[in-house]
Amino acid sequence: MVLAPFKSILMPIQEILYKVCVILRVVSSIVLWRDSYAAFWIVTSSFITSFVVIWIPWAIIIKWWFTIFVWTIFGPWMKLVDIYYVQRKQNTTEEERTAKMEADYERRYNLILGEWSATRIRKENAVKIMDMKRYMFGQFLMRVPIFKEERFPYEPAFTSSSMPLLRRRESSSSSSFRRHGKDGGNEDNDETSARHYNDINIVRHINGQHLSGDMVPFREKNNYDDEHDSMPLT
């Protein structure tokens, strides 16, 4: 590919732009009330919080909070901190301070290196699980959004309509009732134009798509499938 040499540079920027676009779309859907559930709960909680907060004496709370903070940080007992911490630190030699500083730097470096290694392992495991899911369940693997993240919002037209989906038994009984009714005529209503379907016969439940395991991914056992255990992917 032509852009393969620039993947390490452009890919992080594209991921950041994607996250920014998703956040802006979610905020826009809430502000414009397209996501009515989230907007309703945010507005309701804001009104309730405002009514509760309006009765709190903020002036007294802020005054006493700053008073306690100043007395705690700049009180007379700070002389003990000077005696037992500052003077003891100043009485050390230059070599001791340098050794302590180097030990502190090494501890911080090991901590950052360990966190970076753990983050890299988590990313590699996520990529491995995603590739395995694509191999097992198909390449069109995507995250189901919780909020409205679509670029173009869908607004149904005023002329759109829907019809009920009835079972065959209910439809047959209703049609026989219409045929043998008192009027004896065929009434053109919603039930006559409704779609019918056969009863679905579920004979066996298959385990879901959630995988677990480090080296060999396993399917988690389904609660409905008691006959077969989770088998490794071989």
Summarize the structure.
The chain has 234 residues and is mainly alpha-helical. The chain contains six helices and four strands; from the N terminus they run αααααβαβββ. Helix content is 55%, strand content 4%.
Architecture overview:
- There is one protein chain.
- With 234 residues, the chain is mainly alpha-helical.
- 55% of the residues lie in helices and 4% in strands.
- The chain has a two-stranded parallel ribbon.
Query: What's the helical proportion of residues?
Result: 55-70%
Low-pLDDT segments: 175-195, 223-234
Number of strands: 4
Main sheet: strands, sense, barrel: 2 strands, parallel
Rg, Å, rounded: 33 Å
Summing up helix and strand content along with how strands pair, one would put the structural category as mainly alpha
Order of helices and strands: HHHHHEHEEE
Main β-sheet, spatial strand arrangement:
1-2
Percent of sequence in beta strands: under 5%
Characterize the overall form: extended
* Tally of DSSP helical segments: 6
> Mean pLDDT, rounded to whole units?
76
Keywords: Membrane, Transmembrane, Transmembrane helix
Primary descriptors:
234 residues; mainly alpha; two-stranded parallel ribbon; two-stranded antiparallel ribbon; 6 helices; 55% helix; extended; disordered C terminus
Helices and strands, with pairings:
Blueprint: H1 7-31, H2 36-53, H3 58-74, H4 78-90, H5 94-137, E1 165-167, H6 168-179, E2 195-197, E3 211-212, E4 218-219
Parallel strand pairs: 1-2
Antiparallel strand pairs: 3-4
